[in-house]
Structures are given as C-alpha cells and as structure tokens.
Amino acid sequence: xxxxxxxxxxxxxxxxxxxxxxxxxxxxxxxxxxxxxxxxxxxxxxxxxxxxxxxxxxxxxxxxxxxxxxxxxxxxxxxxxxxxxxxxxxxxxxxxxxxxxxxxxxxxxxxxxxxxxxxxxxxxxxxxxxxxxxxxxxxxxxxxxxxxxxxxxxxxxxxxxxxxxxxxxxxxxxxxxxxxxxxxxxxxxxxxxxxxxxxxxxxxxxxxxxxxxxxxxxxxxxxxxxxxxxxxxxxxxxxxxxxxxxxxxxxxxxxxxxxxxxxxxxxxxxxxxxxxxxxxxxxxxxxxxxxxxxxxxxxxxxxxxxxxxxxxxxxxxxxxxxxxxxxxxxxxxxxxxxxxxxxxxxxxxxxxxxxxxxxxxxxxxxxxxxxxxxxxxxxxxxxxxxxxxxxxxxxxxxxxxxxxxxxxxxxxxxxxxxxxxxxxxxxxxxxxxxxxxxxxxxxxxxxxxxxxxxxxxxxxxxxxxxxxxxxxxxxxxxxxxxxxxxxxxxxxx
Length: 493
Known about the structure:
This protein is α/β, with parallel strands linked by helices. It is built from 16 helices and 24 strands.
C-alpha cells in the first residue's frame, strides 16, 4: 500500500523523507518488522519503542512514526504524531482495508466468562451453518488456522490481520473477547462492532485502571462504540450490580438473568457434577437446556449466548442442539479425568469473583471435602490478593497457597499478601507450598473418595512466567502425572 494512502485520517507531520513509497506492513514490535515496513514507536509501560528504531531499520523498515525528535538515517521517512498509540488502530485498519465492516462483529466484555461465552456463541452460529472466526484468551482461530497472540485482545495490527484473514476465508461472523486493556489502550478503536455483550464486572486489573470507576468506564466504551444501525444491539447481564450503568451506556439492548426480570431468563436450575439443566424463558415462550458445563456461572455464560442468538433470529431448536453438544472449554472448570474416586478440576479463575464462583459451585457439588490449590499473579493488582485468600478460606475445607505466574515478583511476597485474607476466616485450614508442582502433588495426595480438588488460576495455560523466563507448566498435565502415580501405587507416593 502507498504510504500516502496508509496515512488517511492519521494525525501526523512529515519530519523527514517523503511519502512516495510502498509500505509492506505496519509493525510496533521491531522483532516482527519486514523489509519495506512502517515501524510505529509506542511508549509502553515496560519499554519505549523509540529505543528500537535502529533494530527496525536494520530489519528493513523504510518509514518510522515517532512521538519525539529522533535522528534517522537518510532516506527513512519520519512521521511525527502526538500519540502513536492512538494512530496505530487507524493505520492498521487502513492497511487491511477495514475488514470488520464486511463481517458481523460480536464483542464480549466483562471480568469473567468472556472465553466461555464466545465459544458458546461460536457453537450456536456454527450449528446454524455460519462460518465463524473467534479471537480471545485461548487463541485466534478460523477453520484450521490457529494463532496464539499473547493477549486476550491483541494490538490493532494483529486484530485487523486476523479479521482480514477471516474475510478471505469467507467468514460471516467474528466473535471476540474485548478486554478492558484493549478498550483503554485504543486497540479496538477502529473495529466495527455490531453486537456488544456484558457478562459481569468485579475487581480486576486495578494495576492499570487504578480504581473501579476507571475500570467500569473502560468496559463501557465498547457499548458506546456500536454504530446506531439496524441490526446492532447490546446484551447485558441484568443481575450484575453494574447493569444499569451498562444499560445507560448502550443503545438498543436486551437483558438476561436469573434473579431479576430479564428479556431472557433462566428458571428451574439443576446443577451437579454431571452438568447443568435449566429452563429458558423469553417472549412468553420457553425451552429446556441440558448441558455438560457445570456451575451457576456456566448458566450465566450460556444465557448470554442464548440471548444473543435469540435476538439474532436463531431458533431455539438450533440453540438447544448446539449447547447440548458442547463438552467444555479448555481450562474452564475442566475435569482432569482418570480412574480415581475423587474429582480434579482445573480452572482459570484469577479474580476474587472468579474464584468465589468456582468454589461456591465446588461447595455445592462435592460429596465430601473441597481442597483448593491457588495463587496470585505477580506484577498485577495487589489489592485482590487478600480477597482471593478470603474466598479460598471461606469455601474450602483445606487450601494450598502456591505460586501462580510470579513474573518479576518473589512468590513468597505474593503469598504474604494472600495470607491476611486467609486468616480473616475463623478456623481456616491451609498450607503454604511455594512450588506449584509440589502443591498439586500434595493436594492429590490428600484427596480421598468423594473429595473435589480445584486447581485455580492458570487454567488452559501451558507455561509459568518466572522472572524473564517462560517455563513449561500445565496444571492438567501435572495433575494427570500425580493421579497416575497415586493409582499405580495404591494412593502412596
């Protein structure tokens, strides 16, 4: 694409060079630059893109966008912008010719439930014979093409590239998780959403947003982004304490819930280790759902998908057929199966509300004791750590506090932040085992017939972030190893 064409609607000033050149790609990571590229210098939280200009030029960048004066080799076009982060989504949309306008875009936001909700929507749409791309925490996927992008919602160039790929593959829908980071940091500014879905709002990411008011406002941006066009609508969880705020932020909207009166409402719930059954009530009509997903939170996620599907004009028969085929979502209340007389569940819960949801469900369905293994991530909101400790102590018969993804922090310090919450609950019983592998081994060693072991925090992740290293670690893999050892050795290690 010609640089002149790429810069349409971009706020910049040409400092050096010229605009008469073809651009092969738009990059903000110097390691990804290809010959002929435009390199965007982003002033990030951990580093500054301006420090990597020479590396980008060495890899073939022929134009650079900056926020401050820099010295560049002759022949390199230099574009000066007030805020390169705000210009990045415009550049990305221009380069890929705004592909989101050619598909139906469904954005799902909320603290918890985004991944499951997007997968349930995808299942319903595919049951209705639609071609769907999905983007979120697990991956970006269309047909057999799967990319792991590293963020729940990646930066604008990756989003636009995936939507463009999906368009080329004749996708009709994209369903994507939209994080508060993405909304606050302008990553989705140029995405043409048709549907916005709100799952819930509880404490998380205050390391970025500083307070719940800012967090709430970031999430609500998604609903104000929907163009006032026929066929566009929002879906909102009316049972959430913040529901009114999101309803006010939305235009054309529909609600779902269990406790409050809603456009789509569940009743007659029956939840067990075998799955969840409930009745869906809407427009003076109803139908039954029996699905393998477990827990009240799973019913809410299903209701969000059902409400969307009904407003999209999809029949109850298709919705029911799709949901009853879904076996589960990786790392979301996922059972580690085997020949043992107790149950082991791995879940991604990493917020106080997320942990409470799965532990409350665990408390309801376990035949005997609830044993919980959990920790908190490093370099993230410290204020949620004691809250998660309190949740674990409140619902568990025994907890093992361990390391999660400590990143640059010392695991012992993170655990020290958790323990005051544990101690708030009278007679709480817990152990501290810093090594996560050993913590999982100990939990399985303790488990007896009818017990439920919940390993929380990492879910689908196959790595552990320690200092600057990415170490292979999969909770499910580790649990299977020790479960096999326990069976083979009659419960003795």
